[in-house]
UniProtKB/TrEMBL annotation:
Name used for this protein in its record: DUF3108 domain-containing protein
InterPro entries: DUF3108
Pfam family, one: DUF3108
Superkingdom to which the source organism belongs: Bacteria
Length: 302
């Protein structure tokens, strides 16, 4: 699989440019295909839980602050089992070190942690924690840290309807309304995986899925084009396998910001097998699946 380094961002494919206003469908509720066994919410080991960001999340997970998850009818939804995924990490086509993604499910709570080592400036860290609500994944806290820079966090203050307010450490004065179903940059992949685990009869080729997405200082509606279910070699370590490719669409009227491509793998219970993010400068960060392992229980405390 080729990796390219760009000085400037290449043009966006014409089929990924939004030229007219798209109709955004209202969020749909979910119906759990299999209810996870109830346990106490997962906690980070003591060395990490002392982090002020971790303390911010306490009381958020499973606290009832998000939309109620009941026995409603809706889209079939099944969370992937807990696991650790390892990836080859590339920056501008240059291989870094092995990145890890910890996906922990305990009852209706989840934690998603990503560590991308980078020798020059220190690791890139991302973490999302939350619970399930009537619309699926409901992040409570999302934070990022690059090297020795201070962490940046986004806090979801959800109400009983699944809405609420956002709070950003980078922009304290910016408190936009949360729409039901709002995700962060990484939870959105597991929302898609859980929907596909519930039913693979969704998001046929050419369809567009709208998802409200939070980053460290923004809340925007992202539109993803689905290329459907295909047998490809887009994830080299899996060989020829059934994958789903989603690509972020760009509005013609807006300046180019970021291009995001996600490949979800059926052999991985629709977990991400490849993730590519390209900034407006042309800088590309790419993660390519390497190995899957059971979650290390030593990372949890009872």
């Amino acid at each position: 699989m080729p990796f390219f380094s760009f000085g400037n961002a290449p043009p966006i494919a014409d089929d990924l440019i939004i030229k007219t206003e798209l109709r955004v469908e209202p969020p749909q509720k979910i119906a759990l295909s299999n209810t996870p066994k109830k346990k106490a919410p997962p906690k980070i080991s003591s060395t990490v839980s002392a982090d002020p960001i971790a303390n911010l999340a306490k009381g958020e997970e499973g606290s009832g602050g998000s939309g109620q998850l009941g026995n409603q009818t809706g889209q079939a939804f099944s969370l992937p089992e807990s696991s650790t995924l390892y990836f080859d990490a590339f920056l501008d086509g240059q291989l870094l070190q092995t990145a890890s993604l910890d996906w922990v499910v305990d009852g209706n709570n989840y934690r998603l942690s990503i560590n991308i080592p980078y020798a020059v400036v220190g690791p890139f860290l991302f973490e999302s924690r939350g619970t399930l609500d009537a619309y699926g994944m409901a992040p409570a806290i999302y934070w990022t840290q690059r090297g020795d820079k201070p962490p940046r966090y986004s806090r979801f203050d959800r109400d009983a309807s699944g809405g609420g307010k956002m709070f950003f450490s980078e922009k304290p004065e910016f408190t936009p309304d949360i729409l039901p179903g709002t995700q962060d940059r990484f939870s959105l992949m597991f929302q898609l995986a859980s929907l596909l685990n519930g039913s693979d009869k969704i998001d046929e080729a050419g369809s567009i899925r709208s998802i409200p997405v939070v980053d460290y200082n923004t809340l925007e509606m992202w539109q993803f084009k689905s290329y459907g279910e295909k047998e490809t070699e887009d994830i080299p370590t899996l060989g020829k396998a059934i994958n789903r490719h989603y690509a972020l669409m760009q509005r013609e009227s807006n300046p180019y910001k970021r291009q995001v491509d996600i490949w979800l793998a059926r052999d991985l219970d629709w977990l991400p097998g490849r993730i590519r993010s390209m900034e407006s400068s042309g800088r590309i960060l790419e993660l390519v699946f390497k190995q899957k392992a059971p979650i290390d229980k030593a990372k949890l405390t009872n």
